[in-house]
Write a structure and sequence with these properties.
This protein is an alpha/beta fold. It has seven helices and eleven strands. The longest helix is centred in the middle third of the chain and has 21 residues.
Length: 206
């Protein structure tokens, strides 16, 4: 494991140099070297992959953690093969990030929480704030509908559902439900995601 800085951002790299790259991302409250990432790096490195924090040269496997919509839009526009894998819990912008890949997987025990846009810090009680929230939420709804099999109307319905979350609005989908709703393509684990990614790379190189 090597640590380094990329544009002043700390990064971690596992494995030997390879044309098969796995990009991992995480939210600002998690660790770059937490247990799930270390397990992923150990398994992937043994299969000849290099685990890295930036886009790969042949393909990208993307474990879905919360990150900005901008990254999800960037990934959805990539020409290279991309596969996402939802582990644990995906919520907030983690949902668009999961559907941004050309093929998405989720483990059965994982969950995806669909909820309205939120904001931390100072919020001004003016009409412009509500308008801003509506526009941002519409961007997310449109992105998810364009990059998954879920209709925008159904996504909004799940987003604004009441009675399921305590003191909150939204819906929690387990792995099977996420696939049934069309939010994620398939149930599967790390081996399934890696096999799919390698198959896509092989097909592209023919």
């Amino acid at each position: 494991m090597n640590t380094f800085y990329l544009h002043h951002i700390p990064c971690v790299l596992w494995g030997n140099p390879s044309d098969k790259i796995i990009l991992t991302v995480h939210g600002n409250l998690s660790s770059k070297t937490d247990v799930p990432i270390q397990i992923l790096a150990k398994i992937a490195s043994a299969k000849g992959y290099q685990v890295y924090r930036r886009a790969g040269r042949s393909g990208v496997l993307l474990p879905a953690f919360s990150l900005g919509l901008a990254l999800a839009e960037l990934l959805s526009g990539m020409r290279k093969p991309t596969v996402s894998l939802v582990l644990g819990g995906g919520h907030s912008i983690g949902v668009p990030l999961a559907v941004s890949a050309k093929k998405s997987f989720i483990v059965p025990s994982a969950t995806m929480t669909v909820h309205p846009v939120r904001m931390n810090g100072l919020v001004l009680g003016v009409p412009q704030t509500l308008s801003y929230f509506d526009k941002m939420q519409e961007r997310i709804v449109r992105f998810v509908a364009d990059n998954s099999s879920m209709k925008s109307e159904r996504f909004r319905e799940l987003m604004t559902a009441t009675g399921e979350l305590v003191m909150d609005v939204g819906t929690v989908l387990d792995g099977e439900s996420a696939v049934k709703e069309g939010l994620i393509d398939s149930l599967g684990g790390l081996s399934d995601a890696l096999d799919c990614l390698y198959g896509m790379i092989t097909k592209e190189n023919r």
